[in-house]
Amino acid sequence: MITWIRQHAFALSRALRQIFKPRSGFLLNTIVVAIALALPFAGLTLLENMRPLSRQLAVEPEISIFMKMDTPREKALAAAVDIHKIAGDSKAQLEFVPREKALASLNEKSGMSDVVATLGANPLPDGYVLKLAGLQNSAEATRVDSIATQLKTLPEVETVQVDSTWVKRLAALLHILQVALLFLALTLGVVVVAVVFNTIRLQVMTQREEIEVSRIVGATDSFICRPFYYSGALLGLCAGAAALGVVALALQPLNDAIADFARLYASEFRLAPLGISATAILLGLSAALGLGGALMSVQRHLSRIR
Amino acid sequence: MIEFQQVTKRYSAHSTALADINLSIDKGELIFLAGPSGAGKSTLLKMIAAIERPSSGTVLVNGQNIGKLKTSGLPYLRRNLGLILQQQRLLFDRDVLTNVMLPLVVCGATRADAEKRARAALDKVGLLDKAKSEPLSLSGGEQQRAAIARAIVNRPQIILADEPTANLDRGNANKVLDALKAFHGVGVTCLISTHDEEILVNAGRVIHLDSGRLIDAGQPARGHA
User: Does A182 lie in the same domain as A43?
Assistant: First the structure.
């Protein structure tokens, strides 16, 4: 175990020496990889910030249920049980709106009182407003349509109005963003692996003599490969950290611009940097991409030297 | 300790480096491989180190069949060998001491232990005062002795030296040979290839090769087997 740790410490020190060697190109390669990583990281930051925003916007989609005009008040009130059953959601809120209250509400709206006065009798039926819990994806939005269809089958119900289109649009937009981000991340992940692959290839070529001598004196392949693996992982890690730093720095001017826009909607919305766990995962992924590129490069080029 | 049984090595249909070699080398022998350039001396040494594999026949080193040795087993075979090449193959981006420490580092030795043993090896070849020198600042003979120090630092059972005195003047050639003979004196099996006839005078067992064929297997010395 001690020998294993010692050999890893040696490999790490070799990798660090290689990195800090003059003209090693490490800084330049880190910048290239960081740029490639910064795009998906920025996209992820945006998406992570939009998720709670979309939840806020999608809070309690409403379904308006209008009773038939000739439905007695008792029957209209009794329909609440059936409506609750169909909603099937313990978090759903159901509010009975008597026709008198509906008319009063209509009267309060500017410009409508004159129109209502000309009608004589109250033309509005009793109704309900069903508020469902927030919808986070298009599948849940479809559930709203299903509930509305079932509500229409109730004998006391004349009309059901549901406006879930915007919820579906937002959910679909978020889904598109997620897929696009995944595609972007995959594409740029390949770029990162390719850059690391080439960097390690050059390192293997410049250290060809050392590799051959090490083999002659009894070095195992693991011993020879390890410093290159560390180099690749360190390149990925440093580039990941740099990319996260760039994204965090970019948030400040972006938030200033967003604040002006959000104020128009009486919102305090701001883009926040990623949390600690997300940051740790992204750093781990960056290191893993670097390691992956190094693994492929070393396996390919060491076999040629052999 | 080392056995060649009907060993042939072909690089192509028209290029045969070794042809039907039968040879037996006992533990502790000092052997000189003689013959002109292209005789097959280097190929024979490379086969013992498993750098080359036989096209046919069997090479046994400490009972291990080189032809059937897996790649993963090579490092452990080579840790028992000290290989000295005509080109010293020292690493010029580090000092002499670090070069000599390399075989110990690859085996997982601590830095302190590796340095102590590397200094002892350099002392044996008379280069302790050059431990912190850059290899390029050494003369050809000193570089060759540094390569010998690297080859013996791991206390190998066998030393394989391929033309170690080539490109050296007589004085430096004698120093290199004296260093190698000193290790033979403590029971290490030494195989030294050369085309220098002067070295072969009173050399003990000399194996003659020519155009890949064994001309004379020499007489095994008594007392070391």
Answer: yes
User: Same domain, yes or no, for A81 and A22?
Assistant: no
Question: Which chain B residues have any C-beta within 8 angstroms of a chain A C-beta?
Answer: 49, 51, 71-72, 74-79, 83, 85, 89, 91, 102-103, 105-108, 110, 150, 154
Asked if residue A169 belongs to a domain, the reply is no
Q: Is the pLDDT at B150 greater than 90, yes or no? A: yes
CA-nearest residue to B108 within chain A is A3
User: At which of A140, A163, A186 does a domain end?
Assistant: A163
Tell me whether residues B79 and A215 touch, CB distance under 8 A. Answer: no
CA distance A178 to chain B (A): 46
Judged by a CB distance cut-off of 8 A, whether residue A10 touches chain B is yes
A150 and A15 part of one domain = no
The answer as to whether A171 is a domain residue is no
Residues of A in contact with B136 (CB under 8 A): none
Best B80, B107, B159 residue to mutate vs chain A (most A CBs within 10 Å): B107
Q: Strand B2-12's sheet: what is its strand order?
A: B15-25, B2-12, B56-61, B64-65
pTM of the prediction?
0.72
Residue A204 shares a structural domain with residue A73 = no
Same structural domain, A280 and A133: no
Whether residue A184 is found in the same domain as residue A295: yes
A210 touches chain B (CB under 8 A): yes
DSSP per residue, A107-142: HHSTTTHHHHHHH-S--PPPEEEEEPPPP-SHHHHH
Nearest CA in chain B to A211: B91
* A218: contact with B, CB 8 A cutoff: yes
- Averages of pLDDT over each 10 residues, chain A, 306 residues: 82 85 80 89 84 57 87 90 83 87 78 71 88 63 80 90 68 80 85 89 88 89 92 93 93 85 75 88 94 92 74
Contact A217 B89 (CB under 8 A): no
**Interface A-B: count of C-beta contacts within 8 A:** 50
Higher-scoring residue by pLDDT: B25, B201: B25
Cβ of B106 within 8 Å of Cβ of A306? The answer is no
From the list B175, B185, B219, the residue with the least C-alpha distance to B32 is B219
By residue range, what is the domain housing residue A82?
Answer: 62-163
A181 and A52: one domain?
yes
Q: What is the complex's ipTM, to 2 decimals?
A: 0.83
Q: Which residues of chain A does B107 touch, with a Cβ-Cβ cutoff of 8 Å?
A: 218
How many domains are there within chain A? 2
